[in-house]
Design goal:
Number of domains: 1
Distance between the termini: 33 Å
CATH architecture: 3-Layer(aba) Sandwich
Structural class: alpha/beta
Oligomer: single chain
Order of helices and strands: EHEHEEHEHEHHEH
Shape: globular
Helix content: 40-55%
Length: about 190
């Protein structure tokens, strides 16, 4: 993997460990010569992961909508900052630039980005690994909801397995390297379950 997109909060959250683990992920990416693609901000977990990469000598590409340049405080020290016109264009560009995706804790925007990448994978638009760095069990309720989607017939078991999960960054990267995208269609019918 040459580049990984990280989706995460522009807030730091209430637990110091979120920032610490975001910075540690950044350091690990740089040590493994993996470039970071992320939302371009210098604040919150976004800033922490970028700073982690930069402090370890790695490369960081930020993708930021023009209207957020002042609100999210664009990071000034990036290898490259790409300005786009919309949130949709941001997600598309971040997807185009990466070989895989990791979601850290975040809010609605993080979940929007995560689920769009999962949906695109489910539809066969890409075959990239999509992963959750489950810091302190942050994503436990979400993984339970995904299990409910399978149990209630709204999601295939194979699609649930598209979501790679670990609490450890290095373990998550190893899972991403071994990832094989599911084959078959998205649609569920009586003969596809």
């Amino acid at each position: 993997m040459k580049r990984i997109t990280v989706f995460c909060g522009s807030s730091g959250g209430n637990q110091a460990n979120y920032r610490l683990q975001a910075a540690a992920l950044g350091r690990i990416l740089a040590e493994q010569h993996i470039e970071l693609v992320y939302g371009g901000s210098k604040v919150g977990l976004m800033g922490a992961v970028a700073d982690g990469v930069l402090a370890a000598g790695g490369k960081v590409i930020g993708v930021l909508p023009r209207f957020l340049k002042t609100k999210e405080l664009a990071h000034e020290d990036l290898t490259e900052l790409i300005l786009v016109d919309s949130m949709h264009e941001r997600k598309t560009k971040m997807s185009e630039l990466c070989d895989g995706v990791i979601a850290l804790p975040g809010g609605f925007g993080t979940l929007d980005e995560l689920f769009e990448m999962l949906t695109w994978g489910q539809l066969g638009i890409h075959k990239k690994p999509v992963a959750l760095l489950n810091i302190d069990g942050f994503y436990d309720p979400l993984t339970a909801m995904v299990r409910t989607m399978v149990d209630e017939g709204f999601l295939k078991e194979a699609d649930q397995k598209m979501v790679l999960i670990s609490a450890e960054a290095e373990d998550l990267l190893n899972k991403m390297r071994r990832y094989v995208a599911p084959t078959g269609g998205k649609w569920i019918g009586k003969d596809t379950l």
